[in-house]
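== Sequence, structure tokens ==
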Amino acid sequence: MNGLKGKGRGAAVAVVAALAGCAMFGTDGRTLSTSPDLPAAEGKAWFGKTQNDNVWVNVEVKHLAHPDKLTPPGNVYVVWTRANKDAEAQNIGALVVGPNLTGLLRSDTALHSFDLFVTAEASGQVQKPTGAPILWTSYSR
């Protein structure tokens, strides 16, 4: 890149950074287990350490039916973390499903080992999961 000057060098640096990000998301993702109630759904989660020693979480889903099509129906999918099976779940954000049945959530958690799961809920602001997990995995740093 030494021969690049001005805007050309900046663009090259941006392309290299973007490709490095793609490599990160393309190699270490964990496949989420799927409920038999939604056999077409697919999900992956990526995890990493933040600068302040928390854990970042990226969840990506495909072929996930709109929550209002479920029985019982919901309005939104919520992603949860839980330190262990006896701990209370923490809502880390709403996973919005677009018209192409894909969705993405990026969030952080202070937990270093946890279960991650997705439920259909009436609101993205709920404090406790009401539905059964439809996608899930575990993470430990």
User: Anything to note?
Assistant: The beta strands are 30-31, 33-34, 42-49, 55-62, 76-82, 90-95, 103-109, 113-121, 135-140. The two ends are 36 Å apart (CA to CA). The chain has two domains: 1-28, 32-140. Residues 32-140 form a domain with the Immunoglobulin-like fold (CATH 2.60.40).
